[in-house]
Protein: Enoyl reductase (ER) domain-containing protein
Amino acid sequence: MAVPHTMRAVQYSKFGGGASDLQHVEVAVPGPTKDQVLVKVEAASINPVDWKAIQKGLLRIFAPAKLPHTPGTDLAGEVVGLGPGVTSFAIGDKVASWTGTAIGGALAEYAVAPIKSTVKRPANVSAVDGAALGIAGQSALQSLRDYGDIKLDGSSNNKNVLVTAASGGVGTYAVQIAKLGGAHVTATCGSRNIDLIKSLGADEVVDYKTPEGAKFQSPSGKKYDVVIHCADYQAFGAFKPQLASTMAKVIDLTPSPKSLVTAGWQGLTFASHRFVPFLMKSKSDDLALLCNLVSEGKLRTVVDSTTPLSRAEEAWQKQIDGHSTGKVVITVGEE
Ligand SMILES: NC(=O)c1ccc[n+]([C@@H]2O[C@H](COP(=O)([O-])OP(=O)(O)OC[C@H]3O[C@@H](n4cnc5c(N)ncnc54)[C@H](OP(=O)(O)O)[C@@H]3O)[C@@H](O)[C@H]2O)c1
Structure:
């Protein structure tokens, strides 16, 4: 496949803006360096971190490396170029990738992808699925398995798990992965999504706008061993009455300085419950595992919307609004 010299991309050139600051530009196709491949992007997905941390400039010491910046870290597409020395991929491979916060680049026709966080997708894993998995899928997997000790072999049937904001990109995967582990799953979401979250396998679903939902109460009175907290920051005390008496963990996906202080204090005082600030670390093994779960029909992506690159600002605004159900995906090359 001949690679052109220039491509369409979406960029912003200052920190602190919003969807209206995204510009459609024609720029040079990037060249892959050592340990990178060049991907013709078929789909990309947007995550909260893209606007609420990276675009706001909160990570500007290292991400993005420079402005103007082409945002988006999660993509799927076809390998069309190999960096020097790359032998683990071939031209024509269909891949999924997390490009990294410093590189971004997914909202474009072509993007460079580091091989350490890029995997070949099985033939039956669509570009939309591949693009959705990067941050959301890996966060759900790592928070449950690595911090919540949920084993994917189904042997965690003695665990009660709560997933908050279960209708979001992370939550829709987390409910399914916790069920693969055999756990009893309680989930919170808005009333319009209760049936969907039950269809993903949740045993009990609570409307977060009810008094019970606001207190994270399980309808059957279950006490949680693991909480995957995907909604906005809540102090540890809000969860405490609902936790199992020994060694319960609240994995906080929206950590703040307050959660770091709480976690530090609990560590110093050898507390029996733990508040665990979480940060996703992309690993090719985990991305490959998630692709395989999708390929085997054990994990499905809930897609909120697919929007062409030419209307990327609409998808960006949808993610900012915070009411998407599942993943907000951009398709590339179908306009
Ligand atoms: N630390 C990390 O490494 C890491 C990694 C990934 C994600 N995150 C963070 O985790 C959070 C979730 O990410 P995401 O991609 O899943 O977000 P998302 O897809 O934007 O989540 C949107 C969903 O959350 C629901 N929701 C919002 N507030 C809720 C509440 N209080 N209770 C129940 N449901 C609620 C919304 O439902 P309604 O429309 O009904 O309100 C909506 O369906 C974000 O804050 C993100 O930044 C952190």
Notes: The CA atoms of residues 111 and 124 lie 23 Å apart. Residues 47-49, 135-136, 139, 164-165, 167-171, 188-190, 208, 230-231, 253-254, 278-280, 319, 322-325 surround NAP (CB under 6 Å). The chain has two domains: 6-120+302-331, 139-277.
